[in-house]
Design goal:
Layout: E1 14-18, H1 23-34, E2 38-43, H2 46-57, E3 64-69, H3 75-88, E4 94-97, H4 115-137, E5 141-146, H5 169-194, E6 198-203, H6 218-228, H7 234-237, H8 239-246, E7 255-260, E8 265-270, H9 280-294
Parallel strand pairs: 1-2, 1-4, 2-3, 4-5, 5-6, 6-7
Antiparallel strand pairs: 7-8
Helix pairs in contact: 3-4, 4-5, 5-9
Bound molecules: NADP nicotinamide-adenine-dinucleotide phosphate.
NADP nicotinamide-adenine-dinucleotide phosphate (NAP) binds near residues 23, 44, 73 and 101.
Amino acid sequence: MWTKNNIPDQSGKTIIVTGANAGIGYETALALYEAGAHVILTCRDQHKADETLNKITEHTGKGSLETGILDLSSLASVKQFAEGFLQTHQQLDVLISNAGVMIPPASKTTEGWELQFGVNFIGHFALTGLLYPLIKSTPNSRIVTVSSMAYVRGAINFDNLKSEKDYDAMREYGQSKLADIYLSLELQRRIEATGDNVLSIAAQPGANKTELSRHMDTDAFAAAVERVGGLMDPWQGALPSLYAAVEPEAKGGVLYGPDQDGGYRGYPAEAVLLPHALDEAVAKKLWDFAEEVTGVSFPA
Ligand SMILES: NC(=O)c1ccc[n+]([C@@H]2O[C@H](COP(=O)([O-])OP(=O)(O)OC[C@H]3O[C@@H](n4cnc5c(N)ncnc54)[C@H](OP(=O)(O)O)[C@@H]3O)[C@@H](O)[C@H]2O)c1
Protein backbone atom coordinates (compact mmCIF):
# COMPACT_ATOMS: atom_id res chain seq x y z
CA MET A 1 0.00 0.00 0.00
CA TRP A 2 1.14 3.55 -0.80
CA THR A 3 1.38 5.82 2.27
CA LYS A 4 3.08 9.08 3.07
CA ASN A 5 6.25 7.09 3.82
CA ASN A 6 6.49 6.63 0.05
CA ILE A 7 6.75 10.37 -0.61
CA PRO A 8 10.15 11.09 -2.16
CA ASP A 9 12.22 13.97 -0.79
CA GLN A 10 10.46 17.15 -1.94
CA SER A 11 13.32 19.55 -1.21
CA GLY A 12 13.49 22.25 -3.86
CA LYS A 13 9.83 21.80 -4.90
CA THR A 14 7.28 24.61 -4.66
CA ILE A 15 3.71 23.41 -4.16
CA ILE A 16 0.42 25.29 -3.75
CA VAL A 17 -2.41 23.63 -1.78
CA THR A 18 -5.79 25.39 -1.95
CA GLY A 19 -8.00 25.05 1.12
CA ALA A 20 -4.99 24.19 3.28
CA ASN A 21 -6.52 25.17 6.62
CA ALA A 22 -8.82 22.18 7.04
CA GLY A 23 -9.40 18.49 6.40
CA ILE A 24 -7.68 16.93 3.43
CA GLY A 25 -5.92 20.11 2.35
CA TYR A 26 -4.33 20.48 5.77
CA GLU A 27 -3.07 16.89 5.76
CA THR A 28 -1.81 17.25 2.20
CA ALA A 29 0.13 20.41 3.08
CA LEU A 30 1.52 18.86 6.26
CA ALA A 31 2.82 15.75 4.48
CA LEU A 32 4.49 17.84 1.77
CA TYR A 33 6.08 20.12 4.36
CA GLU A 34 7.38 17.08 6.24
CA ALA A 35 8.86 15.80 2.98
CA GLY A 36 10.78 19.03 2.35
CA ALA A 37 8.61 21.04 -0.05
CA HIS A 38 8.07 24.77 0.06
CA VAL A 39 4.30 24.76 0.56
CA ILE A 40 2.03 27.71 -0.09
CA LEU A 41 -1.01 27.40 2.15
CA THR A 42 -3.89 29.21 0.51
CA CYS A 43 -6.81 30.10 2.75
CA ARG A 44 -9.72 32.50 2.65
CA ASP A 45 -8.31 34.85 5.25
CA GLN A 46 -5.00 35.70 6.88
CA HIS A 47 -6.09 34.57 10.33
CA LYS A 48 -6.85 31.01 9.15
CA ALA A 49 -3.65 31.00 7.11
CA ASP A 50 -1.49 32.10 10.06
CA GLU A 51 -3.13 29.55 12.37
CA THR A 52 -2.49 26.80 9.84
CA LEU A 53 1.13 27.81 9.35
CA ASN A 54 1.69 27.81 13.12
CA LYS A 55 -0.01 24.44 13.53
CA ILE A 56 2.05 22.81 10.77
CA THR A 57 5.34 24.20 12.07
CA GLU A 58 4.68 22.42 15.38
CA HIS A 59 5.51 19.27 13.41
CA THR A 60 9.01 18.28 12.42
CA GLY A 61 9.40 19.06 8.75
CA LYS A 62 12.21 19.62 6.29
CA GLY A 63 10.21 22.06 4.24
CA SER A 64 9.14 25.67 4.46
CA LEU A 65 5.79 27.40 4.48
CA GLU A 66 4.19 30.51 3.12
CA THR A 67 0.61 31.74 3.19
CA GLY A 68 -1.60 33.10 0.44
CA ILE A 69 -5.08 34.57 0.51
CA LEU A 70 -7.44 33.05 -2.01
CA ASP A 71 -11.22 33.07 -2.13
CA LEU A 72 -12.31 30.90 -5.02
CA SER A 73 -15.81 32.38 -5.00
CA SER A 74 -14.42 35.63 -6.44
CA LEU A 75 -12.53 35.85 -9.73
CA ALA A 76 -10.99 39.10 -8.51
CA SER A 77 -9.48 37.21 -5.55
CA VAL A 78 -8.24 34.43 -7.83
CA LYS A 79 -6.60 36.99 -10.12
CA GLN A 80 -5.07 38.91 -7.25
CA PHE A 81 -3.57 35.77 -5.73
CA ALA A 82 -2.27 34.46 -9.07
CA GLU A 83 -0.76 37.80 -10.12
CA GLY A 84 0.97 38.21 -6.76
CA PHE A 85 2.29 34.66 -6.94
CA LEU A 86 3.64 35.08 -10.46
CA GLN A 87 5.46 38.25 -9.43
CA THR A 88 7.16 36.64 -6.45
CA HIS A 89 7.95 33.07 -7.53
CA GLN A 90 10.22 31.57 -10.15
CA GLN A 91 8.73 28.07 -10.16
CA LEU A 92 5.58 26.11 -9.39
CA ASP A 93 6.15 22.37 -9.35
CA VAL A 94 2.67 21.31 -8.26
CA LEU A 95 -0.69 23.02 -7.96
CA ILE A 96 -3.13 21.03 -5.81
CA SER A 97 -6.66 22.33 -6.38
CA ASN A 98 -8.17 20.90 -3.22
CA ALA A 99 -10.53 23.52 -1.74
CA GLY A 100 -14.20 22.71 -1.95
CA VAL A 101 -17.67 23.28 -0.63
CA MET A 102 -20.50 20.71 -0.44
CA ILE A 103 -24.28 21.15 -0.35
CA PRO A 104 -24.47 24.68 1.10
CA PRO A 105 -27.82 26.46 1.26
CA ALA A 106 -28.53 27.96 -2.17
CA SER A 107 -25.93 30.66 -2.72
CA LYS A 108 -23.81 32.19 -5.44
CA THR A 109 -20.30 33.39 -6.15
CA THR A 110 -19.46 37.02 -6.83
CA GLU A 111 -19.94 36.38 -10.54
CA GLY A 112 -23.31 34.70 -9.91
CA TRP A 113 -22.36 31.05 -10.37
CA GLU A 114 -24.05 28.46 -8.17
CA LEU A 115 -21.57 28.32 -5.29
CA GLN A 116 -20.32 24.74 -5.72
CA PHE A 117 -19.89 25.07 -9.47
CA GLY A 118 -18.22 28.44 -8.95
CA VAL A 119 -15.80 27.47 -6.18
CA ASN A 120 -15.07 23.83 -6.97
CA PHE A 121 -14.76 24.29 -10.73
CA ILE A 122 -14.78 27.87 -12.11
CA GLY A 123 -12.43 29.29 -9.46
CA HIS A 124 -9.96 26.45 -9.85
CA PHE A 125 -10.19 26.61 -13.65
CA ALA A 126 -9.21 30.29 -13.58
CA LEU A 127 -6.49 29.69 -10.99
CA THR A 128 -4.98 26.85 -13.03
CA GLY A 129 -5.01 28.90 -16.21
CA LEU A 130 -3.51 32.01 -14.63
CA LEU A 131 -0.70 30.00 -13.03
CA TYR A 132 -0.15 27.81 -16.10
CA PRO A 133 2.67 29.86 -17.66
CA LEU A 134 4.77 29.35 -14.51
CA ILE A 135 3.75 25.69 -14.15
CA LYS A 136 4.70 25.08 -17.79
CA SER A 137 8.11 26.71 -17.32
CA THR A 138 8.86 24.46 -14.31
CA PRO A 139 10.29 21.08 -15.38
CA ASN A 140 8.17 17.96 -14.65
CA SER A 141 5.36 19.96 -13.08
CA ARG A 142 1.92 18.68 -12.17
CA ILE A 143 -1.63 19.93 -11.68
CA VAL A 144 -3.74 17.89 -9.28
CA THR A 145 -7.48 18.53 -9.29
CA VAL A 146 -9.43 17.07 -6.37
CA SER A 147 -12.77 15.58 -7.32
CA SER A 148 -15.11 13.19 -5.48
CA MET A 149 -17.03 9.95 -5.98
CA ALA A 150 -20.02 12.32 -6.28
CA TYR A 151 -18.93 12.72 -9.91
CA VAL A 152 -20.63 9.36 -10.53
CA ARG A 153 -24.10 10.93 -10.29
CA GLY A 154 -23.01 14.23 -11.85
CA ALA A 155 -24.15 15.79 -15.11
CA ILE A 156 -23.40 19.24 -16.52
CA ASN A 157 -26.58 21.25 -16.93
CA PHE A 158 -25.43 24.16 -19.06
CA ASP A 159 -28.82 25.87 -18.64
CA ASN A 160 -28.72 26.05 -14.85
CA LEU A 161 -25.14 26.96 -13.87
CA LYS A 162 -26.33 30.12 -12.13
CA SER A 163 -29.32 28.28 -10.58
CA GLU A 164 -31.51 30.00 -13.15
CA LYS A 165 -34.10 27.24 -12.82
CA ASP A 166 -33.82 25.48 -9.49
CA TYR A 167 -31.34 24.32 -6.87
CA ASP A 168 -30.68 20.78 -5.71
CA ALA A 169 -27.68 20.86 -3.38
CA MET A 170 -26.40 17.31 -3.93
CA ARG A 171 -27.07 17.40 -7.67
CA GLU A 172 -25.03 20.61 -7.97
CA TYR A 173 -22.21 19.10 -5.87
CA GLY A 174 -22.05 16.12 -8.24
CA GLN A 175 -22.05 18.49 -11.20
CA SER A 176 -19.13 20.50 -9.78
CA LYS A 177 -17.08 17.38 -9.06
CA LEU A 178 -17.76 15.94 -12.53
CA ALA A 179 -16.65 19.33 -13.89
CA ASP A 180 -13.38 18.88 -11.96
CA ILE A 181 -12.84 15.52 -13.69
CA TYR A 182 -13.53 17.10 -17.08
CA LEU A 183 -11.10 19.93 -16.23
CA SER A 184 -8.37 17.46 -15.32
CA LEU A 185 -8.82 15.10 -18.28
CA GLU A 186 -9.37 17.80 -20.89
CA LEU A 187 -6.32 19.68 -19.62
CA GLN A 188 -4.19 16.55 -20.02
CA ARG A 189 -5.43 16.13 -23.61
CA ARG A 190 -4.62 19.78 -24.36
CA ILE A 191 -1.20 19.53 -22.71
CA GLU A 192 -0.39 16.49 -24.84
CA ALA A 193 -1.36 18.49 -27.94
CA THR A 194 1.00 21.32 -26.98
CA GLY A 195 3.83 18.99 -25.91
CA ASP A 196 4.31 20.78 -22.57
CA ASN A 197 6.09 18.81 -19.84
CA VAL A 198 3.19 18.96 -17.38
CA LEU A 199 0.89 16.26 -16.01
CA SER A 200 -2.75 16.92 -15.20
CA ILE A 201 -4.05 14.35 -12.73
CA ALA A 202 -7.36 13.93 -10.90
CA ALA A 203 -7.63 12.63 -7.35
CA GLN A 204 -10.58 11.78 -5.14
CA PRO A 205 -10.16 11.21 -1.39
CA GLY A 206 -12.92 8.70 -0.66
CA ALA A 207 -15.06 9.21 2.45
CA ASN A 208 -13.43 11.11 5.29
CA LYS A 209 -14.16 12.80 8.60
CA THR A 210 -13.79 16.49 7.69
CA GLU A 211 -15.76 19.70 7.89
CA LEU A 212 -17.10 19.15 4.36
CA SER A 213 -20.32 17.65 5.74
CA ARG A 214 -21.10 20.76 7.84
CA HIS A 215 -24.25 21.49 5.81
CA MET A 216 -25.65 17.93 6.08
CA ASP A 217 -28.35 17.24 8.64
CA THR A 218 -27.59 14.56 11.23
CA ASP A 219 -29.83 11.85 9.76
CA ALA A 220 -28.60 12.35 6.21
CA PHE A 221 -25.02 12.29 7.46
CA ALA A 222 -25.57 9.04 9.43
CA ALA A 223 -27.21 7.41 6.40
CA ALA A 224 -24.36 8.51 4.13
CA VAL A 225 -21.73 7.15 6.52
CA GLU A 226 -23.55 3.82 6.71
CA ARG A 227 -23.89 3.66 2.92
CA VAL A 228 -20.14 4.09 2.36
CA GLY A 229 -19.16 1.77 5.22
CA GLY A 230 -17.51 4.31 7.55
CA LEU A 231 -15.23 7.30 7.28
CA MET A 232 -11.44 7.50 7.08
CA ASP A 233 -9.30 10.03 8.88
CA PRO A 234 -8.26 12.91 6.61
CA TRP A 235 -4.57 11.92 6.57
CA GLN A 236 -5.69 8.83 4.64
CA GLY A 237 -7.99 10.81 2.37
CA ALA A 238 -5.03 13.02 1.49
CA LEU A 239 -3.06 10.08 0.06
CA PRO A 240 -4.58 10.08 -3.45
CA SER A 241 -3.78 13.81 -3.81
CA LEU A 242 -0.28 13.17 -2.51
CA TYR A 243 0.20 10.21 -4.83
CA ALA A 244 -0.89 12.33 -7.79
CA ALA A 245 1.39 15.17 -6.67
CA VAL A 246 4.63 13.30 -6.04
CA GLU A 247 4.62 9.62 -7.03
CA PRO A 248 7.03 9.14 -9.97
CA GLU A 249 4.76 6.43 -11.44
CA ALA A 250 1.63 8.62 -11.45
CA LYS A 251 0.15 9.20 -14.90
CA GLY A 252 -1.60 12.18 -16.42
CA GLY A 253 -5.22 11.95 -17.52
CA VAL A 254 -6.35 9.48 -14.88
CA LEU A 255 -8.14 9.54 -11.52
CA TYR A 256 -6.48 8.21 -8.37
CA GLY A 257 -8.58 7.30 -5.37
CA PRO A 258 -8.82 4.80 -2.51
CA ASP A 259 -8.75 1.21 -3.73
CA GLN A 260 -11.38 -0.38 -1.45
CA ASP A 261 -15.16 -0.26 -0.90
CA GLY A 262 -16.01 1.22 -4.27
CA GLY A 263 -13.46 4.01 -3.98
CA TYR A 264 -14.60 5.21 -0.55
CA ARG A 265 -11.81 3.75 1.53
CA GLY A 266 -8.32 2.32 1.20
CA TYR A 267 -5.04 3.43 -0.34
CA PRO A 268 -4.29 5.17 -3.64
CA ALA A 269 -4.85 3.32 -6.88
CA GLU A 270 -5.91 4.25 -10.39
CA ALA A 271 -9.70 4.32 -10.56
CA VAL A 272 -11.87 3.14 -13.40
CA LEU A 273 -13.74 6.19 -14.66
CA LEU A 274 -17.37 5.82 -15.67
CA PRO A 275 -18.16 6.47 -19.36
CA HIS A 276 -19.87 9.84 -18.82
CA ALA A 277 -16.64 11.22 -17.30
CA LEU A 278 -14.79 10.21 -20.46
CA ASP A 279 -17.17 12.11 -22.76
CA GLU A 280 -14.73 14.33 -24.66
CA ALA A 281 -17.45 16.36 -26.35
CA VAL A 282 -18.94 17.54 -23.04
CA ALA A 283 -15.47 18.13 -21.59
CA LYS A 284 -14.54 20.31 -24.57
CA LYS A 285 -17.83 22.21 -24.39
CA LEU A 286 -17.29 22.87 -20.68
CA TRP A 287 -13.69 23.95 -21.28
CA ASP A 288 -14.65 26.40 -24.04
CA PHE A 289 -17.45 27.73 -21.83
CA ALA A 290 -15.08 28.19 -18.86
CA GLU A 291 -12.53 30.01 -21.03
CA GLU A 292 -15.21 32.34 -22.29
CA VAL A 293 -16.75 33.21 -18.92
CA THR A 294 -13.46 33.56 -17.03
CA GLY A 295 -11.48 35.21 -19.83
CA VAL A 296 -8.66 32.77 -19.01
CA SER A 297 -7.33 30.71 -21.93
CA PHE A 298 -4.72 27.97 -21.69
CA PRO A 299 -2.64 25.89 -22.20
CA ALA A 300 -1.79 27.10 -25.72
N1 LIG B 1 -14.18 14.75 3.03
C1 LIG B 1 -14.52 13.87 2.12
O1 LIG B 1 -14.92 12.75 2.43
C2 LIG B 1 -14.44 14.21 0.66
C3 LIG B 1 -14.96 13.29 -0.24
C4 LIG B 1 -14.87 13.58 -1.60
C5 LIG B 1 -14.25 14.73 -2.03
N2 LIG B 1 -13.75 15.62 -1.11
C6 LIG B 1 -13.11 16.83 -1.64
O2 LIG B 1 -11.92 17.07 -0.94
C7 LIG B 1 -11.63 18.47 -0.92
C8 LIG B 1 -11.32 18.92 0.48
O3 LIG B 1 -12.47 18.74 1.27
P1 LIG B 1 -12.42 18.46 2.84
O4 LIG B 1 -13.15 17.21 3.08
O5 LIG B 1 -11.06 18.63 3.36
O6 LIG B 1 -13.38 19.64 3.33
P2 LIG B 1 -13.20 20.76 4.46
O7 LIG B 1 -12.64 20.18 5.69
O8 LIG B 1 -14.53 21.42 4.51
O9 LIG B 1 -12.13 21.76 3.80
C9 LIG B 1 -12.48 22.49 2.66
C10 LIG B 1 -11.44 23.55 2.40
O10 LIG B 1 -11.87 24.31 1.26
C11 LIG B 1 -11.88 25.68 1.63
N3 LIG B 1 -12.86 26.48 0.89
C12 LIG B 1 -14.20 26.40 0.91
N4 LIG B 1 -14.74 27.38 0.18
C13 LIG B 1 -13.70 28.12 -0.31
C14 LIG B 1 -13.60 29.27 -1.11
N5 LIG B 1 -14.68 29.94 -1.54
N6 LIG B 1 -12.37 29.74 -1.42
C15 LIG B 1 -11.26 29.13 -0.96
N7 LIG B 1 -11.29 28.05 -0.17
C16 LIG B 1 -12.50 27.54 0.15
C17 LIG B 1 -12.21 25.67 3.12
O11 LIG B 1 -11.91 26.92 3.69
P3 LIG B 1 -12.78 27.48 4.94
O12 LIG B 1 -12.29 26.75 6.15
O13 LIG B 1 -12.47 28.93 4.94
O14 LIG B 1 -14.22 27.18 4.62
C18 LIG B 1 -11.32 24.54 3.57
O15 LIG B 1 -10.00 24.97 3.67
C19 LIG B 1 -12.86 19.15 -1.54
O16 LIG B 1 -12.60 19.47 -2.88
C20 LIG B 1 -13.94 18.08 -1.45
O17 LIG B 1 -14.92 18.22 -2.45
C21 LIG B 1 -13.83 15.39 0.22
